[in-house]
Amino acid sequence: MNAAEIAPNEMSLSDSRHTPRRPALIVSWALQGIVALILVQTLFFKFTAAEESVYIFQTLGMEPWGRIGSGVAELIAAVLLLTPRTVIYGAGLSLGVISGAIMSHLTKLGIVVKDDGGLLFALALTVFFASLIILLIRRREWPLGLAARIGL
């Protein structure tokens, strides 16, 4: 059986129809690196119980388990983002985790946390939009033809 005889939803991920074009792939990898770098950079502060991280999660009523749990989720997301076959799962996980962070900023923490000038909020927005763009670039890799079902 050749590739022409296989239905489109049965094609493997290695098929060129499922891989973004080169410029989009370059943008995706650049964004994946940025998101992974931001997520990994914050792990030091979460896992060492830095004052600002402890303050944030105490304010949210989630210290220490929320701090540690979100750190583990962010570590997993970073690894998935840098692994070619799992990029979409990493982008989805980072989008979910960072959505919670953004909502926390907007509802309880405020934009500026401990005189950071809004840096943490800006980084959260960067992760959110970069993850969203990664998912859009790689929409043909979504499982179960989900992108086609929602019209993307």
The major beta sheet can be summarized as:
none
Q: What's the number of extended β-strand segments?
A: 0
> What global shape is seen?
elongated
Number of helices: 6
Uncertain stretches of 5 or more adjacent residues: 1-16
**Secondary-structure element pattern, one letter each:** HHHHHH
Helix percentage: 55-70%
Strand percentage, roughly? under 5%
What's the average pLDDT?
88
Distance between the termini: 29 Å
Instruction: Evaluate the radius of gyration.
Output: 18 Å
Structural class: mainly alpha
List the helices and strands and how they pair.
Blueprint: H1 22-47, H2 51-59, H3 65-81, H4 87-109, H5 119-137, H6 146-149
Helix pairs in contact: 1-3, 1-5, 3-4, 4-5
Can you give a write-up of this model?
By secondary structure, the protein is mostly helical. It has a domain at 39-142. Helix content is 64%, strand content 0%. The protein contains six helices and no strands. Helix 1 packs antiparallel against helix 5. Residues 1-16 have low confidence and may be disordered.
Keywords:
disordered N terminus, 152 residues, mainly alpha, 6 helices
In short, what is this structure?
The protein has 152 residues and is an all-alpha fold. The chain has 6 helices and no strands. The chain is elongated and about 45 Å long.
